[in-house]
Amino acid sequence: MDHKRKLLEIGAIVLVVGAIMGSACAAPPAIDPSFNRPEDVARITASETALDKSADVARALEFYAPDAVAVTIWAPGWQAGSDQLRPALASRFRGVKTVEPHIDEINVATDGTLACAASVVRFDIERQDGRHQALAVRELDAWRKSGGRWRIIQQHLSVPVDMASGRPLLAGPLGVAGPLAWAPVVPAIVQSPAAAKAEIRHWLEVNAVTPTVQQAMDTYGPSDDIILFDVSAPKEHRGLADLRSYFNAVLGAASSLEYKLPALRIDSDGRMGVQISRLDLKITAHDGTNQFMSFRQSDCLRRIGRHWYPVFEMGSFPIDAVTGKAIMAHPEAFAGSK
């Protein structure tokens, strides 16, 4: 009996020591080594600068994939593929002599195959007649690396809009917050691009119709490395606390939401993903009244474990060049609904 007792005591000691040693020597959580390699970030940053300086259609098109989707400031503001992008760029550059960009802020997220750049840029545009024009924009670009070359697959350019007057803030100023502090990135459980696209669509559909603040916040996180450019604020929202304040303001009176998704493009490599869409919303307040809103939304997401979380998000309204006001709603999208 004493012999068995001694064996049990020795076994218990071994287990305790083993647990202590295991705790002390355990490897830290795995960090994804492919996330934001310096050479990838530098390449994307340089490409953004070169693109923003361009005032030539042929030169600018070299930065875009043939099937790229671009959302631009002026209505209709949705170009899909080179055949639509080429005349849109020609219109943008018509009468322009030089473009001098001042990138006040740029943050990049990349896994080496897909990349996103969220930036705030002031343009000094010199026209052929000698006039100068100031333009301040938020820019969210998604890039894909193929054959050793990075090209844009999705682009979203926007300006904030005063919700009361519908007037855009074209010349700024736009608030900036500097480099984003990235949390350690846990490697994703990588899935096929097709499965990733399906999950990102589900994320978007949940994100679009969350009537409560907490439900909205559940689609973001888990850390504070998130930037959101909304449709009206000149300053970006950054971090979960700032996002919660934003959703408290915009969802406080909402009882339910309905949505239509007339246009959507999703790209993914299974670790990161990007989506760009047009959304029509019907917002029913607690008093039963309805409000309609139509906007463009783009997101850059990364997969952490088994879940997708955005790191960059932008919403915007297209601007009518004739009236100079934002096109903020398409209530006809819900014709016939109760």
Protein architecture, described:
With about 350 residues, the chain is an alpha+beta fold. It has helices at about 1-25, 40-55, 55-60, 80-95, 195-210, 215, 240-250, and strands at about 65-70, 80, 95-110, 115-125, 130-145, 150-160, 225-230, 235-240, 255-270, 270-285, 290-305, 305-315. It has one domain: Nuclear Transport Factor 2, Chain: A. The chain contains seven helices and twelve strands. The strands form two sheets. The protein has a six-stranded mixed sheet with strand order 2-1-6-5-4-3, covered by helices on one side. Strands 8-7-12-11-10-9 form a six-stranded mixed sheet, covered by helices on one side. The longest helix is centred in the N-terminal third of the chain and has 24 residues, at about 1-25.
Helical coverage, percent range: 25-40%
Give the topology string: H per helix, E per strand: HHHEEHEEEEHHEEHEEEE
End-to-end gap = 81 Å
CATH fold call:
Nuclear Transport Factor 2, Chain: A
The strand line-up of the biggest sheet is 2-1-6-5-4-3
Cα Rg: 24 Å
What class would the helix/strand composition place it in? Answer: alpha+beta
Describe the largest sheet.
6 strands, mixed
CATH architecture descriptor name: Roll
Task: Return the domain count.
Answer: 1
Low-confidence stretches: 1-29
How many alpha or pi helices?
Answer: 7
What does the overall shape look like?
A: globular
Portion in beta strands: 35-45%
Overall residue-averaged pLDDT value: 89
Top-tier CATH class: Alpha Beta
Number of extended strands: 12
